[in-house]
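Reagents: none. Just compute today. Phage tail protein.
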Amino acid sequence: MMMALGQFVFSLSTLAYQEFQRQTDWRHGSTSRIGARPARQFLGAGDDSITLPGVLLPELTGGRPSLDEIREMADTGKAWVLVEGTGRIYGLWVIESLSETHSLFFADGTARRIEFSLVLKRIDDDRIDQLGTLVSTAADQLLEELL
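Predicted 3D structure written out:
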């Protein structure tokens, strides 16, 4: 397992990304001053995003069903816990976009190569300590619905 987003596991048999790109922004307000540089004030954390670009070779690795599953997750609009294979918890993330490029086609139009790029945005405020509570609460609600 490379990483898991909710119940979706990134691996060689599903979606293997080639890079892990993370960008974190911080906000600084600016006020113009006469005869001096603008005054700046730290306003807090800004956006935090992760981009996972990769290549699928459906004959050897994962395929379209994995991309379809990611799209279905995005369609719900829900946030998902992102956990690295090492056990590191990144927090709650939403799927902002998924792009794919198909190339090297078989005679029937099936792609031999699919390049993809998945963009995730963080929505929690460093409250990783509450993730266990959120997960157990969700599990409790699910059990109540089943009973």
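Residues 131-146 form the longest helix (16 residues).
Action item: order primers for follow-up constructs.
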